[in-house]
Design goal:
The complex is a heterodimer of chains A (about 260) and B (about 400).
Chain A: E1 11-22, E2 25-37, E3 42-46, H1 53-60, E4 68-73, E5 76-77, H2 83-93, E6 94-97, H3 109-114, H4 124-137, H5 153-165, E7 171-175, H6 183-200, E8 203-208, E9 219-224, E10 227-228, H7 231-254
Helix pairs in contact in A: 4-5, 5-6
Chain B: H1 4-12, H2 16-50, E1 55-60, E2 68-69, H3 71-78, E3 82-90, E4 93-95, E5 105-108, H4 110-116, H5 124-132, E6 136-140, H6 141-146, E7 154-159, E8 165-174, E9 182-185, H7 186-197, E10 203-204, E11 206-211, H8 217-227, E12 235-239, H9 240-282, H10 285-293, H11 298-337, H12 351-378, H13 381-388
Parallel strand pairs in B: 5-9, 6-8
Antiparallel strand pairs in B: 1-11, 1-12, 2-10, 3-5, 3-11, 4-7, 6-9, 7-8
Classes of the chains: A alpha/beta (about 260), B alpha+beta (about 400).
Chain lengths: ~260, ~400
Amino acid sequence: MVLTAQETPLIRLREVSRSYQRGVDRVHALERVSLDIPAARFVAFMGPSGSGKSTLLNLVSGIDRPTSGEVWVAGQRLNDLDEDQLAQWRARHVGLIFQFFNLMPVLTALDNVALPLLLTQLDKRERARRAELALRIVGLGHRLHHYPRTLSGGEQQRVAIARALVTDPDLIVADEPTGDLDARNAEAVLALLRQLTHGFGKTIVMVTHDPRALRFVDQAFHLDKGRLLEGNDAERAHEAILLAAGGGGAAAAVLP
Amino acid sequence: MISWFGLVLANLGRNRLRTALTFGAVALAVMLVVFLLTMPAGLDALLNSIASNTRISVHNKAGIVYSMPYSYARKVRQVEGVAAAVGMTWFGGAYEEEGRVTFPNFAVEAEYVGAVYPDYGIPKEQLEDFRRYRDGAIVGRQTMRKYNWKIGDRITLKSNLWPVALDLRIVGEIPQERAPMLWLQRAYLDEALLAARGRGLEIVGIVWARVEDPERVDQVMQAIDDLFRNSEAETASETEKSFFGNFFGSLKGFVTVILVVTALVALCIVVIAANTASMAVRERHGEIAVLKAIGFSRRRIFAALLAESTLLCTSAGLTGVALAYGFAQALRSFAGWSPALGPLGSFLVTPGVALRGVLLALAVGFISGLLPAWGAARKPVAQSLHEVF
């Protein structure tokens, strides 16, 4: 079943749960989560460790499948796809950014960015053109032929962002993209992600602990113990993050 | 710009030392296997080059160390279908100070030997001289080269079997690169023995006969053996090829052992290559998880990883085959001037053997990469990411 973009937000989750068997125990990582995310939004999933935010990100990006409930992304019901179909779907619709960059050390920045394009029918010249453009967008036009080991952490994360961007996906998901960066680089990466949403119309869903993210995202979803917080609970979680980041002054600075 | 092949190559270049060592191990093992595989064919080629199907040996049924009455040579010559026959008796002569037999030497009937060995290409005038000079000797080229002899040289052979030492004059050469034997005149030995012990050479070791019609070889052998049935020395006839084949029989058994060892070597390189492939996959779990996450299907991951080990082993295999070819060629050229290496010159890396070497390398690469590639590819992406991050 496929829905059109007019009928539904880019991401729609309905009563989604995910549980795992760990030894003799059943771990409920996510319980009955429902949410909608429109297109061209920069969204954060926030919460303490074990709150289920990474599980939620995996479900949204088609890396994992729910135990129950429905996950719709870009008009596709992901529950219907098997492992290989999901891989194919991700290649076309999702760009991924990880905390530790995970670039291939034996490839140049340009080749790293061009990797997802190997899964397309594009010829070599077009792949090179698009990879170069993606690197220019993230400000690394002068580093095309550098290997990851010669790039700073911030630059490596930019290469990873370019890799996520290069297929022009409907959705970019980022798992703690600032987790391994210093403050200056973290802010630069967050600003870049925001620019991708507001300048290029990309929908970005990010998992983060970083309170600075609240200054950049359009919306934050707060999770705790596998549940999506709503109403007062969500506001309290929001304020707690701001206070932890630097007190009331900081809260005032970042609150919408 | 990266391509699928480029990706495979780039991954092979990730740990160059390990790749080079694996490449070297597989190349050397394939070289060894290929060279060993040339042995059975090499022995056949050697046999073909020295033995004929129409020449038969007639020897005592009890074994070649037992003699037969000299009259057998004459009788064999009279059998229908025999074009020529020559009696040959082991002289066991040692050359000068060496004191041991360093090349085979026989007393032969000078008047018949040329007719039995027309394929040896001994010049007619040399055969004439051999008949003319009672102390004449004809020597194989291999021995001529070994001792740097030339026609006209005089040598002395002291027999380890008979109580005589004979002065010989080299009157001819058997122009075959790998011919080590020396022929001297039976009549000359006969005379010397008569003088030394009062009794001439009354026996013959082997009678070599040439059969006129290749189609009738079996029939002629049967006729000869029938002729001497129930006599004081029954005979066993066999073709020259079969005669030498029995000599090589034990060597063939050795070759079988070598081939078994070769199979074990092949198995070892599978294990070594599998270990390398497994290490290469293990240290890249994170990257493989990321590739899966960005949309590389399990089939593509499996194919890319398998291609790495297959490409590495196949290219190493090609190198191994080239090395074996070079080695065999080198032996072939050395065999030309070093008699000790003579038989090794027969070992040729034929296209069939080369193909088997390459297929072995291909199989090693495929089999060794199969399990690690499957192990890395089969895991669901969520599990791969969970294990890594």
